[in-house]
Amino acid sequence: MEEFIELFLNYLSVERGLARNTIISYKEDLKYYIDFLKKRSIDALSRATKNEIVDFMLSQKDKGLSPNSIARRLAAIKMFHRFLVRERILKNDPTSLIDSPKLWKKIPEALSFNEVDALLSQPDTREIQGARDKAILEIFYATGMRVSEVVNLKTDNVNLDIGFLRCIGKGNKERVIPLGKKAIASIKRYLEYSRPKLLRKKESGNLFISRLGKQISRQSLWKLIRRYARNARIKKPMKPHILRHSFATHLLERGADLRSVQEMLGHANISTTQIYTHINKERLKSIHKMFHPRP
Predict the structure, then answer these.
(1) Superfamily for domain range 2-86
(2) Contact (CB, 8 A) for 221 and 151
């Protein structure tokens, strides 16, 4: 069964072009599924039935897995079985009659305008790493990019003269995102003052460089965002995605159309972007409750 998983993962990588982190998640989800089948003495995927898959989902719920994680795990299993049928490894797909659970979508946390200003003002741009960190924070908020996208951003992807950058997102899909004046100024200072000193006469195509002169890591970005959030006394739980959420929320609050925000975020489906409209509704409700004479 493990052999078929590797075949499936290779298909996702080569033919579907899915991101490495997505493939790692699929691999982990399918490993739990196969382990469950083995505990039931099922040693061939052809013997797996709808009942086994439903029981697997229930077992994940009993273990305290979140609804989102269970849905993702089921999606991996469904795609895996469809692949096996298409490749004629299996005759039947036991997942075809299983509906994906309808999830309550949690409204993502976003920063206020004042919190964003406080966060972005924390790095000391007179310092080498401070100038870099300022450029990183500005890019996060100016573009709504994901952490992996910022980490993998190349110097050639950024055109400061016309104020755009080229982002390679999920599934190796490319999108072009505009940059604001403040982000451009921060990137220019980083490129002129900070990046050459971090590289120490070495060469790299990566835009953001660590203090060791290498490509900056995802973990480093998490740490610096949390550190600056603490310094700014922001109480909200800080993750890099909160700047992506703030980017989308603030654009929509100021009148941006949903399709444009979808394109800039790189969402394949507009329903994913629509969740940010709920934030506006919640904000309006709170304002109404606070100020209306008969709330």
Answers:
(1) Tyrosine recombinase, N-terminal domain (1.10.150.130)
(2) yes
Which among 73, 134, 195, 244 is annotated as catalytic?
Answer: 244
Q: Mean per-residue pLDDT for 247-275?
A: 84
For residue 186 the two structure tokens come to: 């921060």
Is 241 part of the annotated catalytic residue set? yes
The catalytic position among 61, 72, 166, 170 is 170
Residue 61 known to be catalytic: no
CATH topology (fold) of 113-290: hpI Integrase; Chain A (1.10.443)
> pLDDT for 129-181, tens place per residue?
999 999 999 999 999 999 999 999 999 999 999 999 999 888 788 899 999 99
Instruction: Please state, in angstroms and as integers, the Cα–Cα distance from residue 226 to each residue in 106, 207, 221, 275, following that order.
Output: 22, 21, 9, 25
Q: How far is CA 31 from CA 4, 28, 81, 142, 166, in A?
A: 11, 5, 14, 38, 35
Does residue 146 have an active-site annotation?
Answer: yes
Instruction: Give pLDDT, residue 101.
Output: 62
